[in-house]
Design a protein that fits this description.
Blueprint: H1 26-43, H2 53-63, E1 75-76, H3 78-81, H4 93-103, H5 109-118, H6 130-156, H7 159-171, H8 173-179, H9 185-208, H10 214-230, H11 234-252, H12 258-275, H13 278-283, H14 287-290, H15 305-315, H16 328-356, H17 360-381, H18 398-414, H19 424-443, H20 454-464, E2 469-475, H21 478-494, E3 501-507, H22 513-525, E4 530-535, E5 548-550, E6 563-568
Parallel strand pairs: 2-3, 2-4
Antiparallel strand pairs: 1-3, 4-6, 5-6
Keywords: Cell membrane, Glycosyltransferase, Membrane, Transferase, Transmembrane, Transmembrane helix
InterPro entries: LipidA_mod_glycosyltrf_83
Transmembrane segments: 25-43, 136-154, 160-178, 185-206, 218-250, 262-283, 303-321, 328-352, 364-383, 395-415, 427-448
């Protein structure tokens, strides 16, 4: 069944939009506008927010360095803690893979690319450039704008839908949140878009009962292989696609028509490209410890948390105002405006989807989204792995949401009925401006706020302690090292005169008292006076207070850092 173009009366959004597109330069120039806006937003304030633990993993492993040489169970200076962030001219791709495969649970493709990319940027006081590391993710994020445009055109043969999707992608607060971190999610999104494109092509051949081109089949396997090599959760994208294909086969009651044989070959090739990673993943001793945070037991009303977490992630794909502002008044006003906007927007979205569901391509997109959400809740409630706790994991179906929004809003664009108080174009302008304000919210760290604020924590230390400072934490994996690296990096970058600073990474095994005993032994060797800051210290703390007085004054909380202060005289 051929798909109608924009000017065909069989297309549900056919209308008068094409009259402004007579110039062959109109669409490329408009797409360039979305790209420049999106890239500009992603590069704005790129280093204003300090890196957090996951980003430190990217920085260290992409350099070809390791966390293992950092000394444990002794007092160390900030420069020693920061040594893994120092580029070494002798490090190679082989070093990247060697450390990555033994110390973390991620595939290597993005880290290889980051290794080459970060070499282009000068160091900052001897440390790897944060701007250089984050800019790679930002560029991949900006590339998703023309990519979603291409997917929109391929899917609906509508430049209007393609432009709306690109415009939304340019300002999506969720997309900008991912693009401003030195992580692999924006590259994974590009593979998701490419894989969805192959799926759309395949579904058309299924509907027409024609052979899937060998070039498409091979490209699909390669794309899926790269997706898995970028992030293991890409398999959730593949699972969603598989469920959609199974449904199409069941509806046709035909698993042997011409396109299916090559689709089976694609499935086999993709499976092989994924199986090669299984032994590496299983031999990694760090895997379980690094994912403990999404395997927490639930009690009572906590069983409802995944629904609220999932809903929050869906909403923030389109809009998010400063609900994490330090000012309560701004939080309340932002929440109220978001609620009003959602109530106004939801009927527009539903009406558009009802019209677009006439098209099989829209049904495929819906199928992808519903299948992915179903997989998330299966993992959450049946396997005990709460994927809804990490909003970033929604990258596996995020492009389908953006494209579906574009298709729905394209319907409203065309409606010019007199019973509407505002035209479709005005409604779309309001929605886009809301997205733009949401993007600014994320850029200013007032939404999708960083989990860790070492900058604020260091400021608190300097305001509180006038004597040398010892920061102690319990260490299980490199996550805890990253928490301390954030403080040490701020100390080095700010380079302001202050009392000396030392860190103690007390390794913790099955017996938590081990960390306590280690810390007590170290404290006996340190010259007094000093202030002891126990930061995220997950072990008994009574013993080490024998000759130190606990701070009684109430001090402010800081994101990512739970602390107690003892004055050792």
């Amino acid at each position: 069944m051929p798909l109608a173009d924009e000017t065909s009366p069989s297309n549900p959004i056919a209308g008068n939009w094409h009259f402004v597109t007579n110039s062959r330069w109109f669409h490329p120039l408009l797409l360039l506008v979305w790209l420049m806006i999106g890239l500009g937003l992603r590069l704005t304030n790129l280093t204003a927010k300090p890196p957090w633990t996951d980003e430190f993993s990217t920085l260290v492993f992409s350099l070809g360095n390791s966390f293992l040489p950092v000394p444990l169970d002794q007092a160390i200076a900030p420069d020693i803690l920061l040594q893994p962030l120092q580029p070494q001219a002798s490090d190679t791709i082989q070093d990247v893979w060697a450390h990555l495969s033994h110390e973390t649970n991620h595939p290597p493709l993005y880290f290889f690319l980051a290794h080459w990319w970060m070499q282009l940027f000068p160091t900052q006081q001897g440390l790897v450039s944060l701007w250089g590391a984050r800019s790679l993710s930002a560029i991949f994020g900006a590339a998703s704008i023309p990519a979603i445009y291409g997917l929109g055109w391929l899917t609906f043969r509508s430049r209007l839908i393609a432009h709306i999707a690109a415009a939304i992608m340019a300002v999506s607060p969720y997309a900008i949140f991912l693009a401003q971190e030195a992580r692999h999610y924006t590259l994974a999104i590009l593979w998701v878009i490419a894989s969805f494109a192959c799926l759309i092509i395949a579904t058309r051949h299924i509907q027409n009962r024609t052979q899937l081109p060998i070039t498409t089949a091979l490209a699909w396997v390669v794309i899926n292989a790269f997706g898995i090599a970028t992030h293991y959760f890409f398999v959730l994208t593949l699972g969603s696609e598989a469920l959609v294909l199974i449904f199409l086969a069941w509806r046709q009651s035909n698993f042997t028509s011409p396109p299916w044989r090559r689709i089976y070959a694609v499935a086999a090739g993709t499976a092989i490209s994924g199986i090669v990673w299984v032994p590496i993943f299983l031999q990694n001793n760090y895997g379980d410890k690094l994912t403990d945070w999404i395997q927490q037991p639930r009690q009572g009303f906590e069983w409802l948390n995944p629904f609220f977490q999932a809903f929050a992630a869906w909403v923030t794909m389109l809009f998010l105002l400063p609900i994490e502002s330090p000012q309560l008044a701004i939080i309340l006003i932002s929440g109220l405006v978001m609620l009003i906007f959602f109530i106004w927007f939801l009927p527009i979205f539903i009406r558009g989807i009802k019209v677009q569901l006439q098209q099989p391509e829209t049904q495929v997109l819906w199928g992808i989204i519903l299948a992915a959400i179903a997989l998330f809740f299966v993992f959450t409630y049946f396997l005990g792995i709460d994927l809804t706790r990490g909003a970033r994991y929604n990258f596996v179906y995020f492009p389908a949401v953006i494209l579906l929004l574009g298709a729905s809003l394209a319907v409203r664009w065309q409606i010019q009925e007199k019973n509407y108080k505002i035209t479709g174009k005005q409604a779309l302008a309001i929605i886009w401006l809301m997205g733009f304000c949401s993007a600014v919210t994320v850029i200013c760290n007032l939404g999708y706020q960083k989990y860790y604020r070492p900058d604020l924590f260091l400021q608190l230390i300097r305001q509180t302690s006038q004597v040398p400072v010892v920061i102690a934490t319990t260490q299980i994996t490199h996550v805890q090292m990253g928490e301390m690296m954030g403080i040490a990096r701020e100390w080095k970058i700010q380079n302001t005169p202050s009392a000396s600073l030392q860190f103690v990474l007390a390794h913790q095994d099955q017996n938590p008292n081990t960390s306590t005993n280690t810390l007590n032994n170290i404290l006996k060797t340190l010259p007094k006076p000093f202030d002891l800051w126990l930061v995220n210290f997950r072990a008994p703390t009574a013993a080490e207070t024998e000759k130190c007085l606990a701070e009684t004054k109430s001090l402010p909380a800081v994101n990512g850092y739970e602390y107690k202060i003892y004055h050792c005289q």
